[in-house]
Amino acid sequence: MEIERKVEVSKVGLLRENNPEWIILHSTIKHQTLDSIYRLHVNKLKWNGIGYHFFISGPGKVYQTRPLDKEGAHALGFNFNSIGICIPENEDLNLNLKKTKKLVEKVNEEFGNLPVMSHTLAQVKYLNKLFKFKELNYHFFEETEYVNREKYLQTKNEYRKIADKLTPKDKYLKIMLNAFKNCPGEKFEYFLKEINEKELETA
């Protein structure tokens, strides 16, 4: 498959190494083009480049936006051991998902059968680590996919209840709980199930 390199990361030498163990899938409704993502990550947030390793734009066009061996800026707790892929949600979604399958296959030619998870699940895993660090183990949440809308909303509601009970010394955890979002969302539920079942068959 054709991948256009658009790696525009400043000070690449200062980035830490990435040792991929996961592929993390993101989606965006607001930012439909590479230029829009660049303006958000670089111009507004002042990052040194687009945070994802790949961005799929338009009718199935694949861009590499960050070196695969360098840390990403797309999923807290996983930026040093994952490859981030972002897909815009639009009328080209089905085509873009087909491209994503091929992209996952290509990435796995280099790194082996990396499991694919949503950013939604990555957030749950990261929050579980924070709960453990804070010795709040009774708040541990099941680490299975959460993109199903009903499951996501139930979890978000539980997170809000926990956040409301936290003390000021747990400000960061409270911010993370309240920031929990469904990304890439329920439209990707079947895709994630299908692609991970396929990887299990080939493992």
Can you give a write-up of this model?
It is a single chain. By secondary structure, this protein is an alpha/beta fold. The chain has helices at about 35-45, 95-110, 120-135, 150-165, 170-180, 190-200, and strands spanning about 5, 20-30, 55, 60-65, 80-90, 115-120. The chain has two domains: about 5-115, Lysozyme-like (3-Layer(aba) Sandwich), CATH 3.40.80; about 120-180, no CATH class. The protein has six helices and six strands. It has a six-stranded mixed sheet with strand order 1-4-3-5-2-6. The longest helix has 19 residues, at about 95-110. It starts with a strand and ends with a helix. The model has no long low-confidence stretch (mean pLDDT about 90).
Which characteristics define this entry?
single chain; 203 residues; alpha/beta; Lysozyme-like; 2 domains; six-stranded mixed β-sheet; 14% strand; globular
Output the structural class: alpha/beta
- What count of domains describes the coordinates? 2
CATH topology of the largest domain: Lysozyme-like
Q: On the 0-100 scale, what is the average pLDDT?
A: 90
Alpha plus pi helix count: 6
SSE order, as H and E? EEHEEEHEHHHH
Count the E strands: 6
**CATH top level of the largest domain?**
Alpha Beta
Measured distance between first and last alpha carbons: 22 Å
Helix content: 40-55%
Approximate shape: globular
Give the radius of gyration: 17 Å
Strand content: 5-15%
CATH superfamily of the largest domain: Peptidoglycan recognition protein-like
Strand order of the largest sheet: 1-4-3-5-2-6
Unreliable spans are none
Biggest sheet record: 6 strands, mixed
Oligomer: single chain
Annotated CATH architecture of the largest domain: 3-Layer(aba) Sandwich
